[in-house]
Amino acid sequence: MPKALLTDRRRDSYIVRRDASPVRSVPKEYVHLHEAGSVLVANWSALGGGRYAVTANWPDGGVFAGSVPLLLTQTIRQSTLLIGHAELGVPLAHQTLMEWMDFSVAGDFYDPKNKPDNLFIILTFKPNNPRSLRVELSILSEGRLVAESLLDFSWIAPGAYRRLRGEHAQVAWDAITAPSPVAAHTVGRAHAGEVVLAPTPLPDRWELRTDVSRSALYDHRVDHVPGLALIEAAYQAAHAMTGPGHEPVRVMNTFDRYVEFDAPCWIDAEVVPNPDEDIVRVEVTGTQNGERTFAVTMDCPR
């Protein structure tokens, strides 16, 4: 991943503190959320040259329950959507897609004692084509670089999206049921309602639980399983493989096709060889109707 100098990032965060207007109330529509209380981002500022800065606040509780993986992926997602709509002219009516997303995070950032009050996010946007952007993103906490991300972000007009989705464009949410979860502690969660994996006869295979009542993952009605829910499934599968105390410091996500609500999605995980002996690499794959839907690779310290 291309890296700007840390001193440049600190300078950028200083510019935001000095020049940004009073905290703006970000419209929840800009980050594609129904509940305003789930919006993490606030101020934003243009830095020039396709670069922007966003501030964010992580709540102690709320729907994300203090989960660093959920808060981190939501911060990346919301920052990108905010700048796309507020500064780059991406129409609010268009469907947006994150085709792939890689990110790394400092290992000590999982420690609750290091919970940030304020975050500064520096984003650089580069066009891939008229409807797609490459985004480089850095997250700072108190001037310290704590996470980085690289992703491709695209959008599609409503009519084209309806044609693409076809019979899957409408989903009867009230008819969606989820199988019983695995034990919460085995996947690093405190409560059964947070678990997105259901058991199968195989120890390294699970069925994805699409529990649409969980607002942290299903804030509003959508016609496919959100990418955030798939990343959460990968986190939980990796935890089941490595055990506690091995939070991922690098995550690489590829989304191949939509995960639908009308058929089981199988989550498979395996530990694969890695040249770095201090890192356990877990590969997680989602399969539906015999086709791969997404793949996530997680590097976890031993």
Automatic annotation (TrEMBL):
Signal peptide span: none
- Pfam families cross-referenced by the UniProt entry: AfsA
This protein's superkingdom?
A: Bacteria
- InterPro entries on file: AfsA-like (IPR047757), AfsA_hotdog_dom (IPR005509)
Q: Where's the A-factor biosynthesis hotdog domain?
A: 30-147, 187-245
| Name the UniProt record assigns to this protein | ScbA/BarX family gamma-butyrolactone biosynthesis protein
